[in-house]
Amino acid sequence: CQLFGYVGIEAVLDQMKIKTMKTGFEFNIMVVGQSGLGKSTMVNTLFKSKVSRKASQPGQEERIPKTVQLQSVTHVIEEKGVKMKLTVTDTPGFGDQINNENCWDPIIKYINEQYERYLREEILITRKRKIPDTRVHGCVYFVPPTGHWLRPLDLEFMRRLSKIVNVVPVIAKADTLTLEERAEFKQRIQEDLKTHAISVYPQEDFDQDPDDRALNDRIREKIPFAVVGADQEHQVNGKRVLGRKTKWGIIEVENPAHCEFPLLRDLLIRSHLQDLKDITHNVHYESYRVRRLNES
Amino acid sequence: QQPAQFTNPETPGYVGFANLPNQVHRKSVKKGFEFTLMVVGESGLGKSTLINSLFLTDLYPERIIPGAAEKIERTVQIEASTVEIEERGVKLRLTVVDTPGYGDAINCRDCFKTIISYIDEQFERYLHDESGLNRRHIIDNRVHCCFYFISPFGHGLKPLDVEFMKAIHNKVNIVPVIAKADTLSLKERERLKKRILDEIEEHGIKIYHLPDAESDEDEDFKEQTRLLKASIPFCVVGSNQLIEAKGKKVRGRLYPWGVVEVENPEHNDFLKLRTMLITHMQDLQEVTQDLHYENFRSERLKQGGRKIEDEEVNKDQILLEKEAEVR
């Protein structure tokens, strides 16, 4: 229906923005992978602050725990007036034992527990205005840079987890692969994922419109991102850059010619953060809810 | 080196057996050396690339890397490839024993049984040949050295590394190696090396110790030995690709941020590892013979003695076997 004049509907967008800024938002991310793949460093690099579990216990020597443990650390970080309550859940001990059978069970249990917690709040008669959201919005899975194929453990984990949470696989410590090796490795991983029908984020089934599809297709071509993490700055061409210094050069973490960290950051934070939350809420959480309600 | 010749018999007191080392040297050159190197480590740690780089050859020309689906079915395999390398008239018959499948399964409980059986079998075979009547052509397939690859991505030894090394340290010389070292900065390498050495000591793992240089060696050799000992475990990068760097062609890996040179001691310990292997090949064989094999032999004979008491041994059978051997 035609409008005769300016009504002011678009002002709603501004109001929503202001509201979001005031309330802030929650984002829960989980990192999974064997010890030493750079998970904690990556998280610190992503959020440009010391938010990993190691940051809260500095100087402790890294010891492999005998079972998989889950440790969550919450920080409130702020940028240009927008507050984010970020929770990072780490999984030390995953994949490090001699026998790693079922090492994914504690992780699945944790994820389902968060869904349960939300469900309980949601079905109360008197509900909180804002239900605290501890559900895992994204699970970043670190694949070791062997350059060969996905390992049995990688496949088992991703197959199970991608059914209940958004899984974002990344190639860790990618500075050990040349560009050629990287491309070959990625191709093999993509083949592997397709062969085993593992649907990682962004999932094809949830593309909403052709624009979405086009954007996500471009991302899907590049998954898994080959990343390098760094929390130290170095001088390169007169600028301070985050990177790793070696005898044969400096690996600049935010240089797309060196590694795909910027793509990961853009995906998780700049472009798809809300989408990750939406899919968690509308798809994964709903599946859980339906299962639970059918059980009872 | 003085060519071997009879010196003037009029030189007082000179008998002439100082010439013996030259004779031994000549015989060795004629006979050639046999060396068996076992390579153990998870998939994707750079083992094959390193072996090819060390011996400047392609030991695995038709290699197909198996995907995860195939890996799930398999158990650890033993694959031995033998090459004859010759350099300046010296022949080396090198056998590389690969162990694909090690450390790849979700449950690695049983992954070293196959490897230990293989090592024991070679000892058993040598023991059998050595005790036989015809000992002229004993082939030595015993494993003289095991390169154990530790992941450069971890923080030190993994539980599997500890268990495996403890299971074989009394059977074979273990040389721990960290490949794909270009993933670590020099500081990270030092930290990792120290951590690994601490953990090796903590768990009582016996790795191969380079013998100290004799007091009569020259200073250069002594210094080289000191440097080698101080660098264990070696952090290496392997490659047989030639890259253009600083105007010349070097073996290395080309990254967008620079070139890692395999033979540059500032980039990695490859040259040290190669030097160690070549200068200590003889010692590795000796320790295998004098320590590991003798351990095996005495254990075996103690068991074997008991066995003969328990069972009725068919003496005629043994005599027939011996006769066949003599023929």
From TrEMBL, chain A:
Keyword terms of this UniProt record: Cell cycle, Cell division, Cytoplasm, Cytoskeleton, GTP-binding, Nucleotide-binding
Domain Septin-type G: 23-295
Presence of the UniProt keyword Ligase in the record: no
Subcellular location: Cytoplasm, Cytoskeleton
GO CC entries: cytoskeleton
PROSITE patterns attached to this UniProt entry: G_SEPTIN
Superkingdom of origin: Eukaryota
One GO MF term: GTP binding
Protein's UniProt name: Septin-12
TrEMBL record, chain B:
Site (Important for dimerization): 153
Cellular component terms (Gene Ontology): ciliary membrane; cleavage furrow; cytoplasm; midbody; spindle
Protein's UniProt keywords contain Transmembrane: no
Location of the protein in the cell: Cell projection, Cilium membrane; Cleavage furrow; Cytoplasm, Cytoskeleton, Spindle; Midbody
UniProt domain Septin-type G: residue ranges: 31-303
Organism superkingdom: Eukaryota
GO molecular function: GTP binding
GO process terms (BP): cell division
InterPro entries reported for this sequence: G_SEPTIN_dom, P-loop_NTPase, Septin, Septin2
Signal peptide: none
Pfam families named in the record: Septin
Keyword set, alphabetical order: Cell cycle, Cell division, Cell membrane, Cell projection, Cytoplasm, Cytoskeleton, GTP-binding, Membrane, Mitosis, Nucleotide-binding
Family: Belongs to the TRAFAC class TrmE-Era-EngA-EngB-Septin-like GTPase superfamily. Septin GTPase family.
Protein name: Septin-2
Species of the source: Nipponia nippon
